[in-house]
């Protein structure tokens, strides 16, 4: 579910512009009511204080701390003193293991888009047909998304192991030569991971696409049918263009989620095997070399690099792809949008 | 691209529209064939886990892909009798419920101020929370662990509940602010004429009126907390504090030779999430699409 939390890198600018209050109105309206003013301030403090305190303590301060600790060689005990400058960053960026992890992340980003996108659109088109039991189907394809990563990882790891169910089924139907070492073979492991990721997350994409499809007016298809457009012509000329905004936002969420991938890889391949099987990610690298090794300065630096890479990807995507859709759509800052309409 | 104020009503209206249009249509057989294949692909691994729990280890070793014959229930009864399972279940329940309540309470209060008070720095406050969306937990996890350790909260459920609330707040506030802003000004004026204070208006009008939005953000917070693996992995090392995801992972490595029991443990820990999902399916789907389509 973590991907639903990462969707609005343009948040601050859009929100800041959109929700600034009209500054002059308030003092003019109640010039002499000191008591009311104090009361208002007390209410604001009382109501927002707890949220701001929790948020600063557990989100903002740690992120700032990471940027600071990243400059130290530090085992995590006492204040950091062994200033290392950019040494951590140099080690990370020149470490072939980390470069591999980054490469894996970007392979996962691209393959997720290429595999899940078309599959999800096809399934959504199917689900949008007038068929019986549609609500049941819709619910069932969403089940993998709701089950936790740990359960998915445990189950799939057992099924894909060398003596697991997949290889036995292949033997039963006479396809012994297709048997593989699905998890350990570096040539295949990435494919296995993509299969599992697709299984887990395609339901989410389908649900998004379905919601997008239902906002396309039925009349467009009726008009096209009268003009003699075939089913596929209708899909390519009407559905795909009008589904554009939904596809672009899904793609954004998918990319950010793929860059942060950790749970499934860590569950299925463990901390040590992931690198040799060719499925390690930046996050598993951070867990192994930062947390498990007790190098918190180094681990913080990896976090900063991971953040910068995600941010650059997000900004590029916002700048060149999402820009054409409604601004602020991802942030849900509807005050701004309402004014625009 | 409708505003998120619309999203909570979408799941309620769409089924009726669907029912009308599907009432007497059957569609082509090919469509059903694809649908059946799709369902089989989605449910296959889940069934493998559930059915595997009803088999013995020797059955699984002989034929990993077979059906249970005979069906054995000892794996499930063993797991249900073990304290490990129930400790993790109770911890998960506490963590998810406390996270949900905390997120909703703090989120509604802060959103109310951002939506309906005028003061200098209001825009900055909204931006601060919105900025939180840029920092997913993966990025912050290493320093977050250090912070929790500094506060002495490692190996306690508080140590995962508070960060979960903090990381749920941005989405919560972004969904709730437009909701609260949409409550008509006239209602507030009427309440104030009737002698209600701003806080009285908050309790008597705002909280009940924003219920659909509150339920959506509450469900999102609950599912995220329930399935969270990374944060407990960093914060909790004492098995007595493990939540279900950690419990499953721990059980799977501890009893790696006892595949049948691992499968039973795994499928039992799947039940609460599935139950929750079937109860709130429309809200979850509506909430997710609403939160994203904004």
Automatic annotation (TrEMBL), chain A:
GO terms for biological process: transmembrane transport. It is a multi-pass membrane protein. Signal peptide: none annotated. Its main location: membrane. InterPro entries: ABC_transporter_permease (IPR051393), MetI-like (IPR000515), MetI-like_sf (IPR035906). GO terms for cellular component: plasma membrane. It is found in: Cell membrane. Residues 102-317 form the ABC transmembrane type-1 domain. The keyword Cell membrane applies. Residues 1-36 are annotated as: Disordered. Coiled coil: none annotated. Keywords: Cell membrane, Membrane, Transmembrane, Transmembrane helix, Transport. It holds the Pfam family BPD_transp_1. The chain crosses the membrane at residues 44-71, 106-127, 139-159, 188-211, 249-272, 292-317. CDD domains: TM_PBP2. Gene3D superfamilies: MetI-like. Belongs to the binding-protein-dependent transport system permease family. This is Sugar ABC transporter permease. It comes from Isoptericola sediminis.
From TrEMBL, chain B:
It comes from the Bacteria. The chain crosses the membrane at residues 30-51, 85-114, 126-148, 160-180, 201-223, 260-280. InterPro entries: MetI-like, MetI-like_sf. Its main location: membrane. Residues 89-280 form the ABC transmembrane type-1 domain. GO terms for cellular component: plasma membrane. It is found in: Cell membrane. It holds the Pfam family BPD_transp_1. Keywords: Cell membrane, Membrane, Transmembrane, Transmembrane helix, Transport. One of its GO terms (biological process) is transmembrane transport. It is a multi-pass membrane protein. This is Carbohydrate ABC transporter permease. The lineage of its organism: Bacteria, Bacillati, Actinomycetota, Actinomycetes, Micrococcales.
């Amino acid at each position: 579910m973590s991907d639903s939390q990462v969707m609005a890198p343009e948040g601050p600018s859009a929100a800041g512009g959109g929700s600034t209050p009209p500054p002059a109105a308030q003092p003019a309206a109640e010039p002499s009511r000191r008591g009311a003013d104090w009361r208002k301030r007390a209410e604001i403090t009382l109501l927002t204080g707890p949220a701001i305190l929790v948020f600063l303590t557990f989100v903002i301060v740690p992120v700032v701390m990471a940027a600071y600790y990243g400059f130290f060689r530090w085992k995590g005990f006492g204040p950091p003193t062994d200033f290392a400058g950019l040494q951590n960053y140099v080690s990370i960026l020149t470490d072939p293991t980390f470069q591999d992890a980054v490469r894996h992340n970007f392979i996962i980003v691209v393959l997720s888009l290429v595999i899940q996108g078309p599959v999800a659109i096809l399934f959504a088109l199917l689900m949008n047909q007038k068929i019986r039991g549609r609500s049941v189907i819709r619910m069932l394809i969403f089940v993998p998304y709701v089950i936790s990563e740990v359960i998915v990882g445990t189950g799939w790891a057992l099924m894909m192991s060398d003596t697991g169910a997949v290889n036995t089924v292949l033997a039963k139907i006479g396809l012994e030569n297709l048997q593989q070492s699905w998890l350990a073979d570096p040539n295949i492991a990435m494919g296995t991971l993509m299969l599992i990721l697709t299984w887990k997350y395609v339901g989410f994409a389908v649900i998004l696409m379905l919601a997008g499809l239902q906002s396309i007016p039925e009349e467009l298809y009726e008009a096209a049918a009268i003009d003699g457009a075939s089913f596929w012509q209708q899909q390519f000329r009407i559905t795909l263009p009008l589904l554009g905004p939904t596809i672009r936002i899904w793609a954004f969420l998918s990319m950010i989620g793929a860059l942060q991938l950790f749970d499934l890889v860590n569950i299925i391949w463990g901390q040590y095997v992931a690198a040799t099987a060719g499925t390690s990610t930046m996050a598993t690298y951070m867990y192994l070399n930062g947390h498990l090794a007790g190098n918190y300065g180094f681990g913080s630096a990896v976090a900063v690099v991971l953040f910068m890479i995600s941010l650059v990807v997000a900004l590029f995507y916002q700048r060149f792809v999402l820009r054409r859709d409604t601004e602020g759509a991802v942030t849900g800052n509807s005050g701004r949008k309402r004014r625009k309409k | 691209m409708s505003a998120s104020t619309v999203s909570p009503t979408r799941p309620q209206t769409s089924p009726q529209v669907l029912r009308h249009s599907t009432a007497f249509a059957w569609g082509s057989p090919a469509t059903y064939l694809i649908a059946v294949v799709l369902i089989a692909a989605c449910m296959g691994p889940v069934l493998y886990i559930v059915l595997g729990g009803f088999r013995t280890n020797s059955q699984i070793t002989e034929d990993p892909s077979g059906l249970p014959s005979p069906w054995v229930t000892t794996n499930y009864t063993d797991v249900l009798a073990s304290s490990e399972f129930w400790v993790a279940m109770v911890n998960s329940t506490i963590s998810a419920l406390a996270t949900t309540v905390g997120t909703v309470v703090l989120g509604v209060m802060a959103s109310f101020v951002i939506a309906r008070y005028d003061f200098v720095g209001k825009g900055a406050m909204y931006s601060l929370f919105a900025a939180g969306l840029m920092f997913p937990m993966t990025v912050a996890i290493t320093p977050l662990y250090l912070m929790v350790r500094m506060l002495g909260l490692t190996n306690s459920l508080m140590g995962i509940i508070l960060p979960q609330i903090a990381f749920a707040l941005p989405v919560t506030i972004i969904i709730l602010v437009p909701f609260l802003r949409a409550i008509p000004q006239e209602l507030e004026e009427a309440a104030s004429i009737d002698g209600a204070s701003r806080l009285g208006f908050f309790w008597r009008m705002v909280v009940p009126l924003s219920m659909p939005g509150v339920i959506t953000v509450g469900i999102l917070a609950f599912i995220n907390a329930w399935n969270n693996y990374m944060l407990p992995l960093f914060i909790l090392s004492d098995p007595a504090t493990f939540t279900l995801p950690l419990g499953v992972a721990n059980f799977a490595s501890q009893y790696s030779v006892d595949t049948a029991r691992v499968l039973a443990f795994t499928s039992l820990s799947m039940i609460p999430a599935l139950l929750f999902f079937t109860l709130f399916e429309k809200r979850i789907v509506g909430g997710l699409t609403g939160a994203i389509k904004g």
